[in-house]
Specification:
Elements lengths: L16 H5 L2 H4 L13 E6 L5 H14 L3 E6 L6 H12 L3
Parallel strand pairs: 1-2
Length: 95
Amino acid sequence: MGAAFNIRSFLGGYYDDNVYFNNPPDFLPNAQNSEFHHMNIILGTSEYDFCKDDNYQMSGILNRKGIRHQLDVSPWGNHDWPVWKEQFPRYLSKI
């Protein structure tokens, strides 16, 4: 919920296979795994979440791969517990 997904900004330019395989924006576009199409993925963010753009980017990656998912953007709040407290029960009810 409200994830940044891209870990590269925390690594000071370091990059190797460990980074690649643990960095979804790098790994997912090239990944070939039929299990992705059986997951119930929900990207939860909010209107004022500083990670909102990252969620839109991840949604775009999933769309290009034809991976079913939901992008849920709450119309209020930011990257904080009050938003997650409201979102989490809804997400649990979908699994």
